[in-house]
Amino acid sequence: MNPLSWALTLATFLLALAMFLTLLRLLRGPGAPDRVLALDCMYLNGMLLVLVLGMRYNSTVYFEVALLIALFGCVSTTAMAKFLLRGEIIE
Asked: Which of 22, 24, 55, 88 has the most neighbouring CB atoms within 10 Å?
């Protein structure tokens, strides 16, 4: 195996571990802002995991999926933060 393959395997494992630890924070978070931050971190780790898999399998479809994850994650984080601040999303 070449060094790039080892690095991608290690990155996949570490990102999966980070997602698991973030899931624990999401379930055990002491407050709503902590849970929103954990969810934000989880979609970021998921997007990075999809990008690493795209590099590993040499496919451009993964990069489009990562772009969609980033877009939906940004919109959902903004909506959740607005809901926590004001109690409503649509004014």
From this structure: 22
35 is a domain residue: yes
Total domain count for the chain?
A: 1
Contacts by residues 54-62 (CB-CB < 8 Å, ≥ 24 positions apart): 55/8, 56/5, 56/8, 56/12
| Total-model pTM | 0.86
Kindly tell me the number of DSSP H helices and DSSP E strands found in the chain.
3, 0
pLDDT along the chain (91 residues), means of 10: 91 96 92 89 95 94 95 90 79 66
CA distances to 32, 34, 79 from 11, rounded to whole Å, are 30, 25, 30
Torsion sign across C-alpha atoms 53, 13, 19, 42? negative
Domain ranges, residue 35: 3-86
Give me the pLDDT at residue 89, please.
Answer: 66
Residue 91 lies in a domain: no
